[in-house]
Write a structure and sequence with these properties.
Length: 407
């Protein structure tokens, strides 16, 4: 079915005035989430290990129509979760064509759109946004300004159009107004200067923004979501208390708690299927387990900074390097099949050292030495200290319990 292209056609379509006027973006997220909960499918495809912890909390926040923040160390899929929220938006959202802030055709808030409807009536052109186009993301940095987020008065527009500075026609909209009727995400919120965080108060409390002190108020319809690393609260900045008070839900993420969960994440993310024929790259399960165990060992190591964490990107990049070293060997020897070995993990040390923040003693020892020790401990944990001749590996690569392994 073709989508309506004019305001008159829109009035006769399922996008009725009563629905679009009363159904805000948080209602839309809530409704579509409720439908998905009734179906036997994952809430967020590709998010592994959070089914019983983080995902239920996010579901509760959306059902409550809350703005929320994800708190967690690096490499805990915070940004991926925020981007996955677009799957809860409608396939198409109508807006007045040409509008920078994607105005509701039935309830326009900007002067240009109101004038357009007054001039053209039912012939006003309508355009549509996809779910991905309704997601706006900004990485917070200390140099972000109010103009970047909210907007500013453009004197050049005023001069060219002959408008007064207080006219809406002189506004250059920032990222937040451009996210109207969508989701606006700010990553690493503590990095945002305190006075800029203050600029978010009004949109979270009253639902509108004021630009440059002029009487131009925009009642925006936007779902605000944030991410932050708890370590950043003291290292680079903090979330000011009044802003935290206005965030509906604070959800804490975590690293995989079980080895097999971590293996599944790396299988999903690591680039190991490099050829059309899957059988050309054969990675044994015990290789995958050793790679994941390295991250578990690093998170418990006293030489590694616990507050900084060890990103889940470490086993992902290590696995890619392990396969690459095996691939290099097969190219040199003419082997048709790429089969990583334990020795290949040592070749992946450059993929480890940059992903661990070391304590003072660790710095003295050196990242390379610590990486080698982590590999040694990880292999010992997975193999249980058995000699190669005593490895009764099953086809799936599962190790036998030490008490039943032959001497």
């Amino acid at each position: 079915m073709s989508l309506p292209r004019t305001l008159g056609e829109l009035r006769q379509s399922p996008f009725s005035e009563s629905v679009l006027k009363t159904r805000h973006v948080k209602d839309e997220l809530r409704d579509n989430l409720a439908k998905r909960l009734r179906q036997p499918c994952p809430i967020f495809a590709g998010i592994v290990g959070y089914d019983d912890t983080v995902v239920p909390q996010i579901v509760n926040a959306i059902l409550s129509r809350h703005n929320f923040i994800l708190l967690g160390l690096r490499g805990q899929a915070k940004s991926r979760i925020l981007r996955a929220l677009t799957t809860l938006l409608d396939p198409a959202m109508p807006y007045i064509a040409g509008c920078e802030i994607h105005d509701n055709p039935y309830e326009p808030i900007c002067r240009r759109c109101r004038d357009e409807i007054e001039k053209r009536g039912d012939a006003t052109p309508i355009a549509y946004l996809t779910p991905e186009e309704r997601y706006v993301e900004k990485l917070a940095t200390p140099d972000v300004t109010i103009a970047d987020l909210i907007g500013d008065i453009d004197p050049i527009k005023a001069a060219r159009g002959g408008h007064e500075l207080s006219s809406e026609f002189t506004v250059h909209y920032g990222l937040l107004p451009r996210a109207n009727r969508g989701i606006f995400a700010i990553n690493e919120l503590p990095d945002l200067a305190g006075k800029i965080q203050v600029g978010l108060f009004n949109i979270m409390q009253e639902g509108d923004v004021q630009i440059k002190g002029y009487p131009i108020r925009l009642p925006l319809d936007v779902a605000l979501v944030f991410s932050a690393n708890p370590e950043d609260y003291t290292a680079r900045g903090k979330i000011i208390t009044p802003l935290k008070d206005r965030i509906g839900s604070e959800i804490t993420t975590h690293y995989p708690k079980e080895l097999q969960t971590a293996v599944e994440i790396t299988k999903q993310e690591a680039w190991t299927d490099r050829y059309a024929e899957d059988e050309l790259v054969l990675v044994a399960d015990f290789i995958r387990e050793v790679v994941e165990q390295i991250a578990f060992e690093a998170r418990d190591d006293n030489h590694v900074d616990k507050h900084s964490g060890v990103s889940q990107r470490l086993p992902i990049t290590v696995m890619e390097s392990v396969v690459s070293n095996a691939e290099r060997r097969s190219l040199l020897t003419g082997d048709e099949t790429i089969v990583p070995r334990i020795a290949d993990i040592y070749a992946a040390i450059p993929s480890m050292t940059g992903k661990m923040e070391l304590e003072y003693e660790g710095e003295q020892l050196g990242a390379n030495k610590i990486a080698r020790e982590l590999i040694k401990r990880a292999a010992g944990e997975i193999f249980g200290g058995a000699a190669p001749a005593a490895w009764p590996w099953s086809p799936g690569g599962r190790r036998v319990d030490a008490t039943t392994r032959p001497a």
